[in-house]
Amino acid sequence: MDITEKPIVVGTDGSDLAAVAVRWAVRDAARRGLPVRIVHVVDRRPYGTPAAGKVDPRAYAGERMLDHAARTAGECAPDVAVATVLAEGAPGEVLSEEAAAAAELVVGCRGRDGCAGALLGSVPVRTAGHAPGAVVVVRPEPAGSCREVVVGADGSAGCEPALAFAFEQARARGCPLRAVHAWREPQDLMAGPVRGAGPAADESARARCRPVAERIAAWRERFPDVEVREDLRHADPVPALVDASGGAELLVVGARGLSAVGSLLLGSVSRGVLHHAHCPVAVVR
Question: What residues does each domain of the chain span?
Answer without folding.
Answer: 3-138, 149-284
